[in-house]
Design goal:
By secondary structure, this protein is mainly β. It has one helix and 17 strands.
Length: about 350
């Protein structure tokens, strides 16, 4: 059944009726002496990536200074919170990463603005993880942080505490114009159930919406998108293990499925392994296999607090010689990259 967007007049009501709270994203900052949540907080960090890639890319360097400003006010059981994240980039540009407001209480809340919803495909530290060929679908088309011409997409998420350890997030993105959506983005509904108990975190979610077919500006049209994902996370030894499974279909464009696992240790290793399959959404089409591996190690930089250096590399291969759109791949048969990341949080207030 084709996706039918919500009537615009119901968007505000939907954000309230599907709102909820108690989800792990709700801010809960405390002062150093353990006092109740503070009203205002900020921090700043710098991150520089130096990378070497194949396919004629060669050596590159990117980075940014990130400034985070966060505020929260409480009144009894209710709270109102907001966050803005500003980026000053190495290439001379500036950008806004997060900009949202959130309101509710311990049982329910809603968030709207520019933000990322629950991650259904956590990749661990993922210092560098480039995918060859078409790439893969990771259930993140309606997750958020809509950029470019999609920056004005309406994005609302409600959160509800259903029972102890059981949380629901229901996200809604809406634009009504295919040209507003960049590759890898869609409008629609994104329900996610999360359950945590005994050190385990289980997440199951879906994306039900429509994306752009990638047509020329002014001529893009919507195509239906359906996807789902499962994710299991657990602290194992000194690190955290994630196992992810995702699959999706863009009508008339592609079908994709992927299985991945990763393990991350703070001040230690990161390993990610992934196997994906992609094929055109047409009878008799051949299947493309995308294999991706990433490894890295985080070190303290001279023992300085909140200063790290992380060397990492990734390798990915594709079995195809022609590729499908909007799945984040490089459209090359192989991808090799080596990166060194330096990160330092130099201010907190």
């Amino acid at each position: 059944m084709p996706y039918r967007p919500f009537p615009r007049a119901l968007l505000a009501a939907t954000s309230l009726l599907t709102a909820g709270g108690g989800y792990c994203q709700s801010p809960s900052w405390t002062s150093s002496d353990g006092a109740p949540p503070v009203a205002f907080r900020g921090d700043a960090n710098v991150e520089i990536d130096t990378t070497r890639q194949n396919n004629g890319v060669g050596g590159t360097q990117g980075g940014r200074v990130e400034l985070n400003l966060m505020g929260r006010t409480t009144l009894g059981d209710a709270f109102l919170a907001g966050k803005a994240t500003f980026l000053a980039k190495k290439d001379g540009g500036t950008a806004t990463d997060d900009m949202w407001v959130q309101a509710g209480n311990a049982k329910f809340d809603f968030k709207l603005g520019r933000f990322e919803a629950v991650d259904l495909f956590p990749q661990g530290r993922d210092t560098v993880l480039n995918r060859a060929g078409s790439g893969v679908y990771r259930a993140n088309f309606i997750r958020g942080r809509f950029g470019g011409s999609a920056g004005n997409v309406v994005h609302v998420a409600g959160h509800a505490l259903l029972a102890e350890g059981l949380n629901l997030e229901l996200g809604l993105a809406d634009t009504g114009k295919a040209d507003n959506l960049a590759a890898g983005q869609a409008e629609g509904l994104r329900p996610v159930l999360s359950y945590s108990a005994n050190g385990w975190l289980f997440k199951a979610g879906a994306e039900i919406g429509r994306m752009s077919d990638g047509g020329a500006a002014g001529n893009a049209r919507f195509v239906d998108l359906r996807g789902a994902a499962l994710s299991l996370s657990k602290a194992v030894g000194p690190g955290n293990l994630n196992v992810n499974l995702a699959g999706g279909r863009a009508e008339g464009l592609w079908k994709s499925s992927v299985l991945a696992a990763n393990y991350t240790v703070t001040l230690g290793p990161w390993v990610h392994v992934e196997l994906g399959r992609v094929k055109a959404d047409a009878p008799g089409s051949a299947s493309e296999t995308v294999r991706t591996v990433g490894v890295g190690w985080q070190f303290s930089l001279f023992g300085i607090k909140n200063a790290y250096v992380t060397p990492a590399l990734s390798y990915s291969s594709s079995s195809a010689d022609s590729y499908l759109p909007a799945l984040g791949g490089s459209a090359k048969p192989s991808e090799r990259a080596v990166r060194v990341r330096l990160n330092y949080t130099f201010a907190a207030f």
